[in-house]
Structure formats: C-alpha cells, structure tokens
Design the sequence.
C-alpha cells in the first residue's frame, strides 16, 4: 500500500449522465434485494508518477475530462452530501489495468515525455456512491456479489468520510533462487510433493521421472552442465506442464479396455484420438484424394487446422474451451478464452492470419436458480452475465464479429460452465514464396517473445485445468485479457509476416513459454532460453515462474538473425514490445539458463514422449429408460408457448445484440434476420470484398440426448451442424471431382472425470464408456459424409467439488463446422418470404420424443431418442443443394429443439407473415411426435406457388406438404381439420422473447 | 480524370478500416489505409488526399471515454514536423477537403471538437456517451436526413437503414445555446426515425437515447461529417438483414447497399469540384 499519489476523481454531472449508476441501482435491488437508493457511479485515477500540481490539473482537464457530462476533482474525492455510503472497486496488485495504461499513454503524449508504459503508474478504480446508509454486510455483498470479484478486486466500503486511498502496487519479495527437489522418496511423500507443488502428476508419471534421473547418460550430461543429479524446481514444473492432461491429452491417448455388457462385446482401444479422430480424418483424406479434392492442408499438428479456400488464400479454424477459469472468474475466464483462441489462428504456420469471425457456445446452470450454492460456487446468473461480457469485450474490442453460437442450460453446468470459443482466420497461401501454413525452424534462429509482460498471472493454469475445481483453487489461475494489447500485436504480426520477416510463430497460452518453446523446440530439435531477458511486469518471480507464467497477449516468434533489426524496428513503430530470449539449437535438449547459469536441461524426447501411457477401463451396462405416458393435452397453445419460452429454445437476443456480429462488413446470414427477430441456422460471411465466395459456420451440441444414448447424442450433434449448413445453402463435400467445397470441423469434448476410482469416482467406467461411444459416432458420421475433423480439444475434468458435494457436467461434445459457400447470393435464410408460399417438411418424422424439450416440460426423459439415419440424410441434403441451385426454396429452417411447432413459429418470426398448416401428412408418427418430436435431418421449407410442381417432382416422397404462408400474422396448426394451435404470431414472439429479456 | 484519393486511418484498436477502404474502392476512389503512427512518427503526409477517414472500432479499448485517448493523441502528440496532427487536419479542412468519421471515428471527431465546431476554435461542444441501455448493442436503425443540409455526403438520401454497433452513442449537447446553433445551422443532419421517416426517441428505434435523436452531425462548412451508424457495413444488398425478402419482392433489385451511396456522393462531389477547378 502506497500513499501520497495524485488523484483525479471524475463524476457524472447529474443523474441524466449516469446510466451506469441507474443500472447498478436496479441490479442491486433485483439480484440482491437491497434498497440502495439512487446510485452515482464515478471513476478515480490514481497517478503514481511525479507531476506538478499544475500539470495534474491540466492533464485532468484536457485529457480526462468530458466537459459535457463530467465534473472533475483533483486530489480530492467528491462525495456529494446526499450519498451516505460508498464502495470502491480497485484491481488487486498485478491485475491487468488497461484503462490505467491508456491514461499513461495519454499522459506521455500530453507532457511530451517518454513514460515507460510497460509498468503501471496509473491505476483506475470505480467508486460508487449510494443514497442510503447501508451496513458493512450489505456493502460487502454488493461489492463482492455484483460489482466485482474478490479474486481480482480490492474493495473499500463504508461512509464516504471513511474513504481511504488504495494503490495496488505489487510488493513481492525478490526470490530468484532455484531449488533442487529430492524425488527419491517414498510414494506417499512423492504424491504429497506433487500435490503441494500443484504438479497434478500421478505415481506412474512420478516414477517415470525418477527413472529418467537414474539414467547414467542423463546423469553424465547433467554433471557436465553443472546441474544436480536430482531435478531442479524448473525442470519438474516444465515436466508437469508438458505432461498435464491439458497439454498432452493423456486420456485421449490412453489404452482403453471397453466392455459392453449389453452386447457382450469387449475391445481394446489403442488411443481414442488415434483410432477415431485422427483415424477418421486419415480415411477421409484418402476418400478426398480419390476425387482430386485436395483441400486438406494441415490437420491436428499445429495451433489450428488449415484448408484451402482458393488459389490465393487458406482458411484456418479453431475452437477451444476455457471452463475452469470461467467458473471462478467468469469475465476474466471468458475474455482470456476468446483472446487466447484468437491467437491460435493468428499463430498457425508462419502466422499473421487475418481473423474473420468468432463463435461461442456456452453451457450454464439455470440463471433463475434459487437454491443454495456450495462454497465458492458462483450463481449461474453471475457466470452467465460475466461470460457474455467477456466474450463481448474480447470480440468487439478486437474488431472480430461474433457471428454464431448457442447457449445450453442444464443444472449440471451450474458448477463448471462450458465456454467454447471459436475463431476462423484467413491466411495467404504463401509469404515470399513460402507455404504460410508450414512451420520451419533451423539451428541459430532467434526466439523472440512478443506482446505483454510477464507476471504471476495464470501460473499453473495448465495443471489447474486438469484437476477438478475445489475451494482451494489458486487465485493465480485468474487472468484478465487485454484486447488492445493483442490488437497491437496482431496488427504488427500481419505486417511482419507480409514482409517475410517472421519464420514462424506460436501462441503463449496454457503453460506459457514452457509450452510454446517446448513445442517449437521439437522442430529444430533443441532450444536455449535465457530467462533473465524476459521482461517482467514486476520483480519477484522465481525463474520457473517466469517460464511457466500464462500472462496473456504473448506470442513466441522465430526470426532469422538477419531480420532481427528490421523486426525490432517495426515492432517499436507499432508499439509492441519484443525481447530476444534465446535461440534454437539441434542437440536434442531444452536448456534454460538464468544469469548465465543452467537451471534446467531436459531431453526433448523424454519431455514429449516420456509420459507413461494410461490404461483405463470403460464399461457399458445399458441404461434403464422408458417412454412416459403424457397426460391428455387440452391446450396446445399453452404447450407451444411454454416451449418457446423455455431456456433452451427462447430468444437469445439479449446476448446476441451485445456482440458485434457485423464488423468487417462481410455478414450475409446474421444470427437474427428479417426485421431483427428471425433466428437463423448457420451464419454465412463473405471471405473477401473481391468475390461472393463465403463460408458457412454452424454448431451441433445436444448433451441431453446423452442421458439415453451417448452414441446417438454425438451422431445427432454432428447431423445438427451439417444440416444447418445445408439449410443455409451449403453443399456436402466430395460429391464431385475437385469442386473445392471444403468442410472443416473442430471436435470439442467436455466430459466429467472418467477415470474409475472406487471411492472418488465409482461411475467412472460408465462415463468413459459414454466417451467411447461418442467417439465411435464421430468416426462413423465423419467418414460417412467425408467431413473431417481438422482440429479440436478435449477437456476431461469438468467437475466442481465443495462442501462434500460434486457437480459434474453431462458428457458433452460440440461439433463446430465451417464449409465453403461458392456464391453467398444463393444462401437461404429461415424466415418466410411471401404470403401464399407453400410450406413443407423435408425428411421423415418418427416417434422420437426421447430427450426432447417437450418431455422436459413434463420432467420426463423418455427412451426413444432421435436416431440419425445417415443414408437418408445424405440423399436429402444432396437434393436440397440441387434444389437451391435451381432456386426452388424460398426459406429453410432445420428442425431441432422443440420440433416442428417451434420451427414453424420461428419461420414466422421477424416477418409480417403467418402460417396455416396441418400435421396430417406426418401424423403417423403420433400427434405429439409430429408437433414436438426432434427427429433429425429435417427442414421446414417454403416454396413459391409457381415452383410447386418442380419442387414436388424433385423431392418426391421426401417432401410432406403442411400448408401455406399467410399474410395475416396468424399461426394455425391443425390435424384432420381440427385446430390444435391457434395464436397470433406476435403472441408467440412475445413468449419466445420474454425469458431472457428479464435478465436485466 | 484523376481518381479521388481517400485516406483511411488505422491502428490502436481501430478496426473497420478494411470495409471503409473497400467502400471507397467500390465507389470508384483510390483508398489507402495508413497506420496512425506512420503519420505521428514517420511523418506521412495527409495532404496528398481528398478525404480523411476515421473508421469505427475501439481505439484504446474505449478507455477513459470512447475516442478520448485517440483524440488526445491527435491534439497533443508532436509530429516530426513539430506540429500536431490536429494542426495538419486544420490545414486539410482549410484547403476545402473532407473529413469523415464513423462510430468510434465520430466519437473522436466530437471529442476533438471538430464536430460541430460552432465556435470555430475546435473545442468540445457535444459528447457521445454511454447508451441509455448502459450496454453495447448491434441493431439496424432507420435514419432520416434533415432538410437543407450543407454536406455533400448525404445528397439525395432521405431515409437510410444502417446498423449501429456501439455502447457509447448517446449524443448529449453542452447547453441550450449550442443546441440552438446546431438547429439554426441544420448541423444535425441525420436523426433516428421509424421506417416511415418519422423522427422518434423511442427505444430501440433510437438505440441510445441521443438528444433530439441525433445520429449524425456536420460542422458549419459541411466538410466534416460524422455518424454513429455504419454505412461501410452496408455495401451490398446481402448485408441487409432482410435481403431475401427484398429480392423476392423485387427480383431486379440493385446489388449495391444503401451505405455505398454516401461514399459515391462524396467521390462525385470531389470529382466535380476538381472538374470545376480544371475549367476555371
């Protein structure tokens, strides 16, 4: 804590200029039930930099003050008499303070002085004043449960007269010692050591490390380097990071014995990844080659997959999760998630890609949950709001449109939410004659760290995300992203790569330098890092902490010595900090030095391949499910409205509008079309302004089906993503020779702990069996359609523990698909286009209500889960694409959650039209199944009357006529002439929109 | 005839530079994107250009207040010439050239005092601040052009439909005197309205609570123009959220977007001025 720094207090002139104050007052009452009276928001700038009284006054008036809406006060806190309480929300020491940094830059411009903007001299905090005098307890709740997060914020509160200045200066004792760790101890002590150091290693792994340090050759080499025979702390930390589940995917690489008790089958699986994921893509590559479709350029072995877009450009696509950090700090977790994921396409191959769009898929608990929370668990509403705000800032402030997404609500996501962040980019095929998607490194190339400085942030992020959350989770796992720092970095990288100055690049994400350099070193077969050169945010980090820190907005660049000067000049001009921290070698070792002394040396083969393979057991016992008896329904209007307003179906407009989904000016199908109320299936964006080529992007995720059948859940999710793209006007790949239609998929598995343990995880074998089944479906579906996985990620420990309870997510898979659209002008949106158009269902409807949203409103699960019939699906999708070439379809919407009735209503939303339809043509499935069943591979389409004959001839028995679009804004759905649903579209729209509107 | 030259500024979190440049290219001009530091540090001259553009984005993350930090840079940072960028912009305007700001660019022009600049002293007279909804919103809005406006950017435009994408777009005016002058000089050139052109302060038609529903302003010369909605995001029909229905109703509907008109207007105007110069 420091005193006597200068202070500028900025306060809105009156309530009319203070929409934040109004919002806070409203939220305190609504979410916490506390009457605060009127609220005045304000900002306090603390300036820990020597400037005179006059300079301060001038700076405040000319640089910080908005004369129209603000009043400013120098070196005084303005607290008008009518306010009886205050709360100040400051950032804790070392937490990113972008606004402070911007204020510093402005101070430097204003004074015309060079001020080191890489260390923090200006700290910004929010100060709120409240009309009512409130007790400390209420103020503490408002501070910690609404205004900030105690993991990253420091709060002061009380009467305004008690205000104390808090400066978050970092005060860490300098301790750059390197410790040697004796690992030759008994197993119990060894495991305790692993826990105490947060290494997250099991006994097999620890023994493998013991063996390495017993190896004569290793010991001889260590002696020559002046290293002790036992590991240094730095070495153990590097091994733990590299071998973490997060980085090495040990469970997807494990040998699995799978026993299916229902079929009696037993099989040995030699790695889920190799068998199903890589295995399917290899098979597809063969299929594609036969047809001269050679668009698969890079799969799995870089930060993101790469496919060919056209003769000039390539397309990069990556989806990641950021679940654990989002559970404890939703905003920070989500914003680092999206910014971190952005760096993957930016740093694929040589790097420098231009980012085209983001996607986000989120799984939360019920935001209206009213029960007790366990220990450190945050309320699902807070997680929801914080994550959305994080995605908003991460995307909007980076100028990347968030074009598509989905939100799933299920109480099992109330502990750990799932936060999937996707990013696509475009990178030229070549820079100065070199293939841009390839990475080459030679001995002697320099290792350059670019971007933000290193602090204690996020140390142990990789090992942390590989364990379940509990009340002792380290707060250093929390980081806040800085979009502006990353934007500067991305702008720099784009220019530097274009000029051919960068040999390749990679992102510093989980595991920090340890991960990025550890991986790059495998290309040249060695690297030497001089850690003392790494620039720090503040002193006091141990050497291993510098190497492992996950401080954000950093990349590692590989630069040939001849380009060093030019690269550094360019970076300086573009205000990006670069540091030369070492060089690549070729002797097989990763060597870390500090002040000239070697503090770690590890054999790269051991580092990357020395981790013992796991053996796991999976057992499927079948599941006991039945079809329920649903009581006679006398009001179908009510059922439809209930469905439309249910969390999983309701309008997500509240979220969508907070994301900029149009920046870059290339959007063709947006999340909401028509008059702004029409939900769409896939998003479509153009890839350049020079042509009408584009990309469609979609998501498939239906976790609730997994409670009945994990295979069909995975297959159905795959089909959902495919049919959305088909609906929007896409075409399946590989149907013709070398037509250039690429599809590229990220698979993201998020599952609960699936490692059997009789005490801690008694149903681990069943969970693993479900994972196996999900992978089997992935293989079957992708190879059937020739739609390949190109990248992906698994997150294996999605459990939240506390107070003797455990909340585990349901096994979840997300398929994120992107496909080339040859001409975006042929795309089809979901909303009806004209009265009197005919309305059809394409594809067959079965008695498949199992796992449906319809059953959910009766608290039933059911047994008849929708089944994917790939042959039928493929024929239909091919026919739809042909029909679109002939412009036979005016609108198309895929049928999913809530079934036909919901789908038809959504086709009316955002238009002035209604629909008059009957379910007679599909009634053989049963009335409820016809109305609300979620059978896969179906579309509701509308057809202009003049095309009726051609349309019906084209689709034959696959098309089922329902009725027609009307101009009267009425929604009627009947059976055998008897009306089942009769409502105005505007009433249905109101039901659909109301659920999340009241979030505010 | 020489092509009209448009300069598009980028860097520091500006992020609509590509579509802004594409708009000028599509409209028939030559567009150059330049990093702000090329001007501030390397001495790149803006005077070879006809129109200077500040695109949308989040310069400096909207820190302190939207547009503020960038405006400070333009006002205070010394160029290699010893002048500041604002000095150069003054010269640029004095030479009869044009300055255009969209969204964050509009915020920068307002905070600099280039809009509306009633006093002629380039000091801030209005502001763009936090939306009444207190959040960022992306939605399409109708805007009505005022009568008797001086600026060539809006020639032959009556109602225009464009996306807004901002968290700080609420225009507030310092006092009644400023408001009166804005009205007297017809500087509030664009206002949020309903689909029939009726100006309204009803949310979400007026998406942010702007005073007098103002969406765009010019200075007294008409050479400086700024607006919150994004014309560069509506360059083709296929950007329109209801393009499928529009094309169904009118199969021969033009493929140009309405936003392109603003760029065509300024280019045509500059080109015709040059022709006049050549003749005289």
Sequence:
């Amino acid at each position: 804590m420091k005193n006597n720094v200068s202070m500028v207090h900025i306060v809105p002139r009156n309530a009319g200029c203070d929409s934040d104050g109004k919002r806070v007052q409203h939220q305190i009452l609504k979410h916490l039930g506390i009457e605060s009276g009127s609220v005045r928001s304000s900002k306090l700038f603390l300036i820990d930099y020597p400037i005179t009284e006059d300079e301060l006054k001038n700076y405040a008036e000319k640089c910080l003050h908005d004369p129209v809406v603000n009043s400013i006060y120098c070196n005084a806190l303005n607290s008008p008499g009518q306010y009886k309480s205050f709360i100040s929300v400051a950032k804790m020491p070392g937490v990113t303070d972008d606004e402070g940094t911007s204020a510093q830059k402005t101070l430097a411009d204003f004074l015309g002085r060079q001020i080191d903007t890489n260390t923090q001299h200006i700290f910004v905090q929010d100060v709120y004043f409240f009309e009512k005098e409130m007790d400390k307890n209420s103020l503490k709740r408002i501070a910690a449960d609404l205004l900030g997060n105690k993991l990253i914020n420091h709060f002061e509160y009380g009467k305004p007269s008690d205000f104390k200045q808090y400066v978050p200066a970092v005060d860490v004792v300098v301790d750059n010692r390197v410790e040697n760790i004796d690992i030759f101890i008994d197993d119990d002590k060894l495991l305790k050591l692993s826990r105490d150091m947060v290494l997250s290693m099991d006994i097999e792994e620890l023994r493998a490390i013991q063996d390495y340090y017993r190896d004569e050759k290793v010991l001889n080499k260590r002696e020559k380097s002046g290293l002790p025979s036992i590991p240094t702390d730095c070495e153990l930390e590097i091994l733990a990071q590299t071998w973490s589940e997060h980085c090495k995917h040990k469970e997807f690489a494990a040998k699995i014995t799978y026993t299916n008790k229902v079929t009696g089958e037993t099989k040995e699986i030699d790695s889920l990844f190799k068998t199903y994921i890589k295995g399917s893509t290899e098979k597809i590559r063969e299929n594609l080659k036969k047809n001269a479709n050679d668009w698969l350029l890079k799969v799995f072995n870089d930060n993101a997959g790469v496919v060919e877009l056209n003769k000039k450009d390539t397309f990069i696509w990556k989806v990641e999760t950021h679940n654990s950090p989002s559970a404890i700090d939703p905003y920070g977790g989500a914003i680092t998630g999206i910014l971190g994921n952005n760096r993957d396409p930016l740093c694929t191959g040589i790097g420098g890609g231009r980012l085209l769009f983001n996607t986000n898929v989120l799984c939360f608990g019920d935001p209206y949950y009213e029960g007790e929370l366990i220990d450190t668990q945050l309320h699902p509403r807070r997680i929801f709001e914080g994550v959305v705000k994080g995605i908003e800032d991460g995307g909007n402030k980076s100028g990347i449109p968030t074009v598509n997404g989905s939100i799933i609500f299920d109480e099992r996501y109330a502990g750990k939410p799932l936060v999937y962040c996707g990013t696509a980019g475009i990178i030229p095929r070549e820079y100065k004659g070199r293939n841009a998607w390839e990475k080459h490194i030679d001995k002697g190339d320099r290792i350059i760290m670019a971007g933000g400085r290193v602090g204690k942030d996020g140390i142990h992020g990789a090992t942390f995300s590989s364990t379940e959350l509990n009340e002792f989770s380290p707060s250093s796992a929390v980081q806040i992203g800085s979009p502006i720092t990353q934007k500067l970095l991305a702008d720099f990288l784009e220019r530097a790569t274009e000029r051919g100055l960068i040999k390749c690049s990679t992102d510093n994400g989980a595991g920090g330098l340890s991960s990025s350099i550890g991986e790059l070193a495998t290309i040249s077969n060695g690297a030497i890092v001089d850690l003392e050169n790494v620039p720090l945010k503040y002193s006091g980090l141990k050497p291993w902490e510098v190497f492992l820190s996950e401080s954000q907005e950093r990349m590692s660049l590989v630069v040939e010595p001849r380009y060093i000067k030019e690269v550094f000049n360019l970076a300086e001009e573009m205000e990006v900090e670069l540091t030369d921290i070492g060089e690549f070698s070729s002797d097989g070792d990763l060597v870390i030095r500090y002040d000239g002394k070697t503090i770690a040396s590890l054999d790269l083969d051991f580092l990357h391949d020395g981790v013992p393979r796991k053996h796991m057991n999976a057992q499927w016992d079948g599941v006991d499910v039945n079809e329920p008896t649903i009581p006679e329904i006398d009001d179908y209007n009510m059922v439809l409205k209930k469905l439309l307003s249910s969390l999983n179906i309701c309008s997500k407009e509240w979220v969508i509008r907070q994301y900029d989904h149009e920046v870059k000016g290339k959007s063709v199908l947006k999340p909401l079309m028509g008059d702004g109320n029409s939900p769409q299936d896939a998003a479509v964006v153009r890839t350049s302004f020079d042509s009408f080529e584009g990309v469609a992007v979609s998501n498939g995720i239906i976790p609730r089906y997994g409670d009945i059948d994990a295979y069909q859940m995975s297959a159905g999710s795959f089909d959902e993503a495919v049919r959305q793209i088909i609906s929007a006007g896409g075409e399946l790949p590989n149907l013709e020779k070398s037509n250039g239609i690429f599809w590229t998929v990220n698979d993201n598995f998020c599952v609960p702990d699936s490692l059997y343990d009789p005490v801690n995880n008694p149903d681990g074998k069943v969970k693993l069996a479900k994972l196996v089944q999900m992978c089997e479906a992935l293989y079957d579906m992708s190879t059937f359609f020739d739609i390949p996985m190109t990248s992906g990620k698994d997150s294996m420990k999605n459990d939240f523990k506390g107070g003797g309870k455990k909340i585990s997510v349901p096994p979840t898979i997300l398929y994120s698909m992107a496909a080339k659209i040859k001409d975006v002008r042929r795309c089809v949106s979901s909303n009806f286009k004209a009265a009197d158009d005919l309305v059809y269902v394409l594809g067959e409807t079965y008695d498949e209500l199992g796992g449906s949203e319809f059953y959910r409103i009766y608290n039933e699960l059911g047994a008849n889960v929708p089944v994917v019939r790939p042959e039928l699906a493929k024929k239909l999708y091919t026919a739809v694409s042909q029909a679109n070439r002939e412009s036979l379809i005016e609108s198309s919407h895929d049928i999913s959650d809530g079934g036909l009735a919901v789908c038809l209503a959504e086709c009316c939303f955002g238009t002035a039209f209604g629909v008059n339809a009957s379910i007679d043509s599909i009634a053989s499935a049963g009335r409820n199944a016809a109305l609300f069943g979620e059978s896969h591979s179906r579309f509701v389409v509308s057809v202009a009357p003049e095309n009726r004959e051609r349309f019906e001839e084209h689709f034959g028995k696959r098309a089922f006529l329902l009725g027609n679009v009307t101009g009267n804004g009425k929604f009627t759905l009947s059976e055998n002439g008897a009306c089942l649903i009769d409502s105005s579209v505007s009433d249905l729209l109101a039901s659909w929109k109301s659920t999340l509107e009241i979030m505010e | 005839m020489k092509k009209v030259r448009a300069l598009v500024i980028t860097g520091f979190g500006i992020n609509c530079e590509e579509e802004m440049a594409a708009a000028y290219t599509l409209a028939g001009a030559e567009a150059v994107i330049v990093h702000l530091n090329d001007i501030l540090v390397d001495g790149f001259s803006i005077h070879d250009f006809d129109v200077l553009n500040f695109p949308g984005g989040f310069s400096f993350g909207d820190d302190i207040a939207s547009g503020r930090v960038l405006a400070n840079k333009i006002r205070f940072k010394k160029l290699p010439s010893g002048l500041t960028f604002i000095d150069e912009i003054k010269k640029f305007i004095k030479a009869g050239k044009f300055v255009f700001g969209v969204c964050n660019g509009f915020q920068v022009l307002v905070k600099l005092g280039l809009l509306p600049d009633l006093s002629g002293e380039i000091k801030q007279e209005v502001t763009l601040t936090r939306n009444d909804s207190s959040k960022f919103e992306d939605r399409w809005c109708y805007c009505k052009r005022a009568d008797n406006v001086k600026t060539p950017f809006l020639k032959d435009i009556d109602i225009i439909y464009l996306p807004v994408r901002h968290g700080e777009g609420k225009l507030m005016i310092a006092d009644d005197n400023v408001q009166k002058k804005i009205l007297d000089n017809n500087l509030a050139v664009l206002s949020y309205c309903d689909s029939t052109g009726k100006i309204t302060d009803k949310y979400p038609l007026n998406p942010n609570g702007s005073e007098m529903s103002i969406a765009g302003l010019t200075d007294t010369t008409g050479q400086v123009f700024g607006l919150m909605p994004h014309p560069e995001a509506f360059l083709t029909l296929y950007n329109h959220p209801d393009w499928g229905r529009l094309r169904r109703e009118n199969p021969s509907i033009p493929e140009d977007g309405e936003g392109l008109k603003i760029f065509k207007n300024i280019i045509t105007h500059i080109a015709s001025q040059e022709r006049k110069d050549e003749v005289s």
The CA atoms of residues 378 and 843 of chain A lie 43 Å apart. Residues 764-785 of chain A form the longest helix (22 residues).
